[in-house]
Design goal:
By secondary structure, this protein is of the alpha/beta class. It is 41% helix and 19% strand. The protein folds into two domains: 8-147, Rossmann fold (3-Layer(aba) Sandwich), CATH 3.40.50; 148-230 and 244-304, Lactate dehydrogenase/glycoside hydrolase, family 4, C-terminal (L-2-Hydroxyisocaproate Dehydrogenase, Chain A, domain 2, Alpha-Beta Complex). The strands form four sheets. Strands 3-2-1-4-5-6 form a six-stranded parallel sheet. The chain has a three-stranded antiparallel sheet with strand order 7-10-11, with helices on one face.
C-alpha cells in the first residue's frame, strides 16, 4: 500500500462535530478529498459551500456525497447521532443512537473491504462494539475515539499543574468513555519519572481529578450546548495516524479480548487500523476499576445485543 492510499475521508453527519472535523481536515491538508454526508442533504450541501470558501488555506477538496459513496472511502468517520442532553449519561443515548448507526452502516453497503471506520458518536464504546458487528469489517478496522479526548484533557490539566509541556506527559484515561472511566496513575510519568513522585502531585485527590476530567464535557454542554472542537482535533489526529501510517499509540475504543468488550486501551494505529493493543501497568485498585468498567459495558451490550 502506498503512503497516500488512504486519501479519501468520509464524514457522516455534518452537524457541529462533523463540520468541525471536516474543517480541521482541510486545515491539516492530510486528505485529498473529504466527503460530506448527512440525513439532511441540504445541510451537507450548505457545509460544502461554506467549507469551499476555506480553500484559500487548503488543497483538500470537500464535497457533498451520497451514503453509498461514503462506503467506498478509505476512512469513514461516523458522527451521526442524537446530541447528548444535559444530565444524560452516555449509555442513555443507546436507544436513540443505535437505530441511526444501523441505518447508516446498512445504507453504505457494500463497504470498501480495506476501509477504516472510526466511530465518534456516543456512547462510543457500545456503538463501536455494534459497528464492528454491523459493518462486516475486521475488528481492527473499526474503532472508536474512546478516551483519547479525556486523556488529552487530563494531560492539559497536569501540564498546568506541573508547568511542563503537555506533550511530555504520559498519562491516560482508560475504560469506558463515560461514568466508569478511570485514570491509570500507576503508569503515568514525565520523562520516565513517575507522575505521583512529583512534589506538585503530593496529597492530590485522585477521585476529584477523575470527576473533573470525566465531567468536563457536561460542563461545556451546560455553558454552550455541545462540544465539538476538542473531539474534532482528536479525530483529525487519528485520521493523520491512519493516512500517514504514523503508528501513534492512543487510548481508543477497541475490542479487548481478555475482557470480552470494547473499551479504551492504548492502541497502535496505522494504515490498517488498530495494529496492536497494549496492556499497561495498573495498581490493584486500578485493575479493579478496569474490570468494573468492563463489566458495566458488557451488561449494556448484552442488554441491547438482540
Amino acid at each position: 500500500m502506498d503512503i497516500g492510499a488512504h486519501s479519501k475521508v468520509a464524514v457522516i453527519g455534518t452537524g457541529s462535530v462533523g463540520s468541525s472535523i471536516a474543517y480541521a481536515l482541510m486545515l491539516k491538508n492530510i486528505a485529498n478529498e473529504v466527503l460530506l454526508v448527512d440525513a439532511i442533504p441540504e445541510r451537507a450541501r450548505g457545509q460544502e459551500m461554506d467549507l469551499s470558501d476555506s480553500n484559500v488555506l487548503s488543497s483538500t477538496r470537500v464535497r457533498y456525497a451520497t451514503i453509498q459513496e461514503a462506503g467506498q472511502a478509505d476512512v469513514i468517520i461516523i458522527t451521526a447521532g442524537a446530541k447528548q442532553r444535559e444530565g444524560e449519561s452516555r449509555t442513555e443515548l443507546i436507544d436513540r443512537n443505535y437505530d441511526i448507526l444501523e441505518n447508516v452502516i446498512g445504507a453504505m453497503r457494500p463497504i470498501k473491504r480495506d476501509a477504516v471506520m472510526l466511530i465518534v458518536a456516543n456512547p462510543v464504546d457500545v456503538l463501536t462494539f455494534f459497528a464492528q458487528k454491523l459493518s462486516g469489517l475486521p475488528r481492527r478496522q473499526v474503532f472508536g475515539s474512546g478516551t483519547f479526548l479525556d486523556s488529552s484533557r487530563l494531560k492539559v490539566y497536569l501540564s498546568e499543574r506541573l508547568k511542563v509541556n503537555f506533550k511530555a506527559i504520559h498519562a491516560a484515561v482508560l475504560g469506558e468513555h463515560g461514568d466508569s472511566q478511570f485514570i491509570a496513575w500507576e503508569s503515568a510519568n514525565v520523562a520516565g519519572k513517575p507522575l505521583l513522585s512529583f512534589p506538585e502531585m503530593k496529597d492530590i485527590d485522585k477521585e476529584k481529578i477523575r470527576r473533573k476530567i470525566a465531567g468536563k464535557a457536561m460542563d461545556i454542554i451546560k455553558l454552550k450546548g455541545s462540544t465539538y472542537y476538542g473531539i474534532a482535533a482528536c479525530t483529525v489526529s487519528l485520521c493523520e495516524s491512519i493516512i500517514r501510517n504514523k503508528h501513534d499509540v492512543r487510548p481508543l475504543s477497541v475490542y479487548v479480548e481478555k475482557l470480552g468488550v470494547t473499551m479504551s486501551m492504548p492502541a497502535k494505529l496505522g494504515w490498517h487500523g488498530i495494529e496492536e493493543v497494549y496492556d499497561v501497568p495498573l495498581s490493584e485498585s486500578e485493575q479493579e476499576q478496569l474490570w468494573a468498567s468492563a463489566k458495566s459495558l458488557r451488561t449494556v451490550c448484552e442488554k441491547y445485543n438482540t
